[in-house]
Amino acid sequence: MRALLYDPEAPQGFRLGEAPDPVPTESQALVEVHAVSFNFGEIAYREGVLSPGQVSGWDAAGVVVRAAADGSGPPAGERVVTFGWTGAWAALRAVETGELALVPDRVDLGAASALPVAGVTALQALRRLGSVVGRRVLITGASGGVGRYAVQLAALAGARVVASVGSPARGEGLLELGAEEVVIGL
User: Fold this and answer.
1) Is 60 found in the same domain as 9?
2) What is the 3-state secondary structure (H, E, C) of 129-154?
3) Structural contact between residues 116 and 58, judged by C-beta atoms closer than 8 angstroms
4) Count of CB atoms within 10 A of residue 106's CB?
5) Residues 36, 57 contacting (CB under 8 angstroms)
6) Which residue among 53, 54, 58, 130 is least enclosed by CB atoms within 10 Å?
7) The pTM is what?
8) Per-residue pLDDT in tens (0 to 9) along the chain, 186 residues
9) Full domain range(s) for residue 74
10) Which of 126, 124, 144 is CA-nearest to residue 135?
């Protein structure tokens, strides 16, 4: 199958190539990958974590082509978003059924592929605050993937969001996402 492989000799450490099809365990579904997202951590910390020829990638979305043999998870044909520490950047991905979620037909798979790491990180950070209804919440790094999700989730939860960014250009679009105020350089 086609995959983006770790190659320390290639420019930026990755190359498009061929990898063996994954073989799912009893508790894994086999997913045909339609979209992936890139996260800072999987790019920045690849050396020493990946072996040459390994398929990296944490987040992917696609369609189940083979349900888990143990009966857990969705049946074949279901649209899903997946998470795992490797294997997302390939045509096929074997993934634990506890690490996938159904994607409604109205949601684009490309957009869904960006949810697992950034979206869940933002959600977990906000949950640590408890109720934010009516509270003023500062989101630092608001222009990044996690920050943009945090701005939206906090605003939807009833917070008055202050988005902090490094430059005016990085603050573009944050008011439309729900920030009440955008500050530069905090």
Assistant:
1) yes
2) CCCCCCCEEEECCCCCHHHHHHHHHH
3) yes
4) 5
5) yes
6) 130
7) 0.84
8) 999 999 999 988 999 999 999 999 999 999 999 999 998 888 887 777 888 999 999 999 999 999 999 999 999 999 999 999 999 999 999 999 999 999 999 999 999 999 999 999 999 999 999 999 999 999 999 999 999 999 999 999 999 999 999 999 999 999 999 999 999 986
9) 2-113
10) 126
